[in-house]
Amino acid sequence: MPPLDPIETKATFLELRRADMIRRAMATAAGLAFVAANVGLYAADVHANQEIQASASINIATMSEALDPINNDKAILLLNGLGTSNANELAASSGIALQSILDSQIWPVGMNNAHLDYDAIAESTVKKVDAEKVKTLYMIGYSTGGNIVMQVQERIRALSDVEIALIVLDVMPDGIQTLQPARREEISLVEQFAWIPGATYSTSLRLIGETAFRADRYNSGGPIERFSDFVKTANEVRRAITSAELPGTWLMFDQMLALQTSDIKGRFNNLNDLPDDIMLPTIIHLSGKNDYMVNNKKVGENLVDYTDPSHIPLFDFNMPGAVHTRPDLSTKTYFEVFATNADAILESIDAQRALAKYNETLKLEQLAEELAEKSDPDAQIGIPNPQQLSDFDIPSEEVPSN
Q: Is 263 left (phi over 0), alpha (psi -120 to 50) or beta?
């Protein structure tokens, strides 16, 4: 194979970059042209959507109680990702699969076109935890829902003593740099519209953006075929936007912002700073090898770097055949992956719980010593002998990743 001509390579690169800049400029111009030509309709649409958002609120429903009522003191909390308004579909796939090995209630979070608010999600969760007398939470975040979960779990800890025993990060991106190149371009394209007044509430600009994202559906064939496919795609997007299939534009922008600002490394640093007597969660990273949205290999490597210093147990499980935008198609795979690794997951959770309990006991013993010395410096405090300490199941510091 002849060596690449560096001048030709650079010229090709510059041409591709120029074409990309033209595409973005044309998309922005199309948005501006629409707004200018339809100011009255645009303003009415934005106002209507603002009213929808103002009356919306987050809710956490009970999709299913525990299979055995004795386990209703545990719950699986689910948060879906970019382009979704609730986690019902997720609850019916990964939720019921996880329930099969960790029997508990299933709680999908419904955003219902409210703005994304981590504090509001945490507060709603704690209210439900208290009302249902739940002692243990397992959390699942799908795609950007994983970024949201990592923010929400911190806020739940600040409000409640409920035990967060497991966090499942399902095809979660770790910042925009871990998106596949084409997806990064799409995020950048959306940002071209962000400065237009009312853009985050515009159904029409959302139509342009969503249609542009689906360009692969109408960019092949002859001119007539391409135009026909374009009209078909645009009509499909219009129906989806005006129904419950897609969230409001404002929530979509919120979800994209969560992807950019979640700081996953910082979230794990905060877990590392928790007191020794607080149980650390077991982390499960679910990934697909051919994910067209997220570079899961890179995310997995990052998670190893984040969890190693604090010995947070991490499992990385492959999801064969997973389609990023259709978790419902992977229900069988979720069951298989969780069932295959059930023993390791349960052992890890039990080990972390035992370690936290052991550290809590040591703290109490130390406090008792200090109090006794203050009241009577000559008093001898009974220290637990090795046989007493052996009553605790003391785990090793790290559960190996799978």
A: left
Alpha helix (H) ranges present in 220-295? 223-241, 249-261, 264-272
Q: Are 188 and 305 in contact (CB under 8 A)?
A: no
3-class SS shares of the chain: helix, strand, coil, % to 5: 55, 10, 30
CA distance 193 to 196: 6
CB 207 within 8 A of CB 190: no
Specify whether 178 is located in the same domain as 269. yes
List Cα–Cα distances, 87 to 179, 306, 337, in angstroms: 22, 27, 20
My answer on whether 350 and 290 are in the same domain is yes
In a domain? residue 376: no
Nearest-angstrom CA–CA distance, 41 and 196: 15
In a domain, 221, yes or no: yes
Are residues 26 and 167 part of one domain? no
| pTM assigned to the model | 0.78
Give the residue carrying structure tokens 């550290």. 359
Domain presence at residue 173: yes
Clarify whether residues 250 and 338 are in a common domain.
yes
Cα dihedral 197/203/205/211 (nearest 10):
160
pLDDT, tens digit (0-9, with 9 covering 90-100), for 200-222: 788 877 777 777 767 767 877 88
Same domain? 22 vs 142? no
Per the structure, the complete domain to which residue 267 belongs is given by 40-356
Assigned token pair, 5: 């001509």
Measured CA to CA in angstroms, residue 219 lies from 180, 328, 392 at distances of 20, 28, 64
pLDDT at 31: 54
Render pLDDT for 130-144 as a digit per residue (tens, 0 to 9): 999 999 999 999 999
Instruction: Report the DSSP beta bridge partners of residue 315.
Output: 284
154 near 273, Cβ under 8 Å? no
Same domain for 113 and 26: no
Cβ neighbours, 10 Å, residue 240: 15
User: Do 307 and 341 share a domain, yes or no?
Assistant: yes
